[in-house]
Amino acid sequence: MGQLTRTIALVGMMGAGKSSIGRRLAARMGVGFHDADHAIEAAAGRPISAIFAEYGESAFRDCERKVIARLLDREPHILATGGGAFMSEATRARLAEKSVTVWLRAPLDILFARVKRKGDRPLLKTPNPRETLEKLLCEREPTYALADLIIDSEDAPHAEAVEKLMTVLTEKGIWQP
Ligand SMILES: Nc1ncnc2c1ncn2[C@@H]1O[C@H](COP(=O)(O)OP(=O)(O)O)[C@@H](O)[C@H]1O
Ligand SMILES: O=C(O)C1=C[C@@H](OP(=O)(O)O)[C@@H](O)[C@H](O)C1
Ligand SMILES: [Mg+2]
């Protein structure tokens, strides 16, 4: 059994693979996995889409900030954040203090191909979701670039991204096999 010295927080756009790759990475390491979106849903007792519809985005963001702060107090684990979480300065400060942040980077075409399969992302319920995703990507990219590490999440099997993460985290001594 290896040891994870710090929580690994995955950041990046919707469709980057934070949730699916994060879960696989945690299973591969044998450490805990938390998905901030799931924790928010559990706290609110309703799905993300209903939180947006009933309370609005700013209430969702408040909840997201608190939930991530709470998760960061747990033992080192893999944390999948939601795509907008890293835009909060307060959340970025907490993540910097208590985790190693990894931007899972992917180009627009790949992101859109992945998110269009599922219609559960409230921010993309617009007349032209591809354009909306592109706008968000342009706005957010400079902030994602502030993450400690960058891993490309290309059009390859999940396992490939997991292996890349394992390699980089081992090199940095954050994962000690
Ligand atoms: N590297 C990848 N290769 C193939 N499919 C992927 C990859 N990463 C993510 N996906 C798929 O894209 C969709 C969105 O991924 P998800 O993990 O929910 O992203 P995020 O949490 O960053 O929004 C899922 O159906 C997932 O299986
Ligand atoms: O980019 C965003 O602002 C959002 C991303 C979603 O998470 P994923 O990035 O896991 O899809 C979810 O938190 C919510 O729909 C808002
Ligand atoms: Mg997710």
Automatic annotation (TrEMBL):
Instruction: Enumerate the CDD domains for this protein.
Output: SK (cd00464)
Q: Name one Pfam family in it.
A: SKI
Chain sites annotated for binding substrate: D37, R61, G83, R140
Cellular compartments per GO CC? cytosol
Q: Which Gene3D superfamilies match?
A: P-loop containing nucleotide triphosphate hydrolases
Q: Which GO terms describe its molecular function?
A: ATP binding; magnesium ion binding; shikimate kinase activity
Q: Where is Mg(2+) bound in this sequence?
A: S19
* UniProt keyword terms in alphabetical order: Amino-acid biosynthesis, Aromatic amino acid biosynthesis, ATP-binding, Cytoplasm, Kinase, Magnesium, Metal-binding, Nucleotide-binding, Transferase
Subcellular location per the Swiss-Prot or TrEMBL entry: Cytoplasm
Q: Which cofactor does it need?
A: Mg(2+)
Query: Top-level EC class, please?
Result: transferase
Q: Does the keyword Cell membrane apply?
A: no
Q: Please state the pathway this protein functions in, per its UniProt record.
A: Metabolic intermediate biosynthesis; chorismate biosynthesis; chorismate from D-erythrose 4-phosphate and phosphoenolpyruvate: step 5/7
Residues given in the record as ATP binding sites: G15, A16, G17, K18, S19, S20, R121
- The keyword RNA-binding is annotated on this UniProt entry: no
Q: Which SUPFAM superfamilies match?
A: P-loop containing nucleoside triphosphate hydrolases
The record's cofactor note says:
Binds 1 Mg(2+) ion per subunit.
Which EC number(s) are documented for this chain?
A: 2.7.1.71
* Reaction catalysed by this enzyme: shikimate + ATP = 3-phosphoshikimate + ADP + H(+)
The Gene Ontology biological process terms listed for this entry are:
amino acid biosynthetic process; aromatic amino acid family biosynthetic process; chorismate biosynthetic process
Matching InterPro entries: P-loop_NTPase, Shikimate/glucono_kinase, Shikimate_kinase/TSH1, Shikimate_kinase_CS
The UniProt entry, under NCBIfam families, shows:
PRK13946.1
- Function noted in UniProt: Catalyzes the specific phosphorylation of the 3-hydroxyl group of shikimic acid using ATP as a cosubstrate.
Q: Which family does it belong to?
A: Belongs to the shikimate kinase family.
The protein's name in its UniProt record: Shikimate kinase
The organism of origin for this protein: Rhizomicrobium palustre
